[in-house]
Backbone:
């Protein structure tokens, strides 16, 4: 390769790669601005059993810290936690599947995702998670379980084999300390006794069980 060819290649790269990098950076900055503006302007509108902001931020931080990209949420409601999860995934290059059985909440969530600028990071499904979840292909590296509490263990058993080692399964309204009123004590014991998961609890919001998968079995 002649010196001239090398120069031409470098020159071409400079004028194609650098603008591309700037474009990506600009897209991320613009998205941050749009999501923050959406969350600020809708701050008082989350009345559909949506998680407290402390819990949403916790999910966001877990995804960013672990660079997760394949997320599943069971229980979308109007999309508050999905927005935080998808916002994190927009930074890791990931995507979220989220499931809701109630059509009006599903429609509101889809509208919220569009307004927040996050639609491309979310595959929102209107379905009964009881039947949809066992058939999902996976693999997943992050799960947030926040639908019907009496089905928590069934969801866990269906998804845990599809969670990669190093992945994280989070469950809402679950605490080691207090009785959350959902009758989830046996579920907590179940999580704590699993040999291939290490579970801790975050009680800053409504209680989140954070279960990291340590090995296949
Ligand atoms: C606690 S809310 C979810 C809140 C949401 N994660 C948020 O923070 O914005 C639980 C939702 O799960 C939905 N749900 C309950 N059972 C379900 C099922 N079998 N399949 C799908 N969604 C279900 C309910 O309709 C409800 O909207």
Residues:
């Amino acid at each position: 390769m002649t010196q001239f060819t090398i120069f031409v290649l470098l020159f071409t790269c400079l004028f194609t790669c650098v603008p591309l990098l700037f474009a990506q950076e600009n897209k991320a900055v613009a998205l941050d601005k749009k999501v923050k503006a959406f969350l600020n302007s809708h701050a008082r509108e989350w009345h559909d059993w949506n998680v407290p902001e402390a819990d949403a931020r916790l999910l966001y931080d877990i995804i960013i810290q672990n660079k997760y990209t394949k997320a599943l949420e069971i229980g979308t409601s109007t999309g508050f936690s999905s927005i935080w999860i998808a916002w994190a995934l927009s930074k890791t290059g990931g995507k979220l599947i989220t499931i809701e059985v109630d059509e009006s909440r599903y429609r509101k969530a889809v509208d919220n995702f569009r307004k927040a600028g996050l639609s491309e990071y979310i595959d929102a499904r209107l379905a009964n998670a009881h039947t949809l979840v066992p058939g999902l292909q996976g693999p997943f590296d992050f799960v947030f379980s926040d639908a019907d509490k009496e089905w928590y263990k069934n969801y866990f058993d269906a998804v845990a084999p599809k969670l990669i080692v190093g992945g994280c399964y989070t469950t809402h309204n679950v605490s080691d300390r207090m009785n959350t009123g959902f009758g989830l004590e046996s579920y907590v014991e179940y999580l704590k006794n699993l040999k291939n998961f290490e579970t801790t609890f975050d009680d800053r919001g409504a209680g989140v069980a954070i279960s990291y998968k340590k090995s296949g079995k």
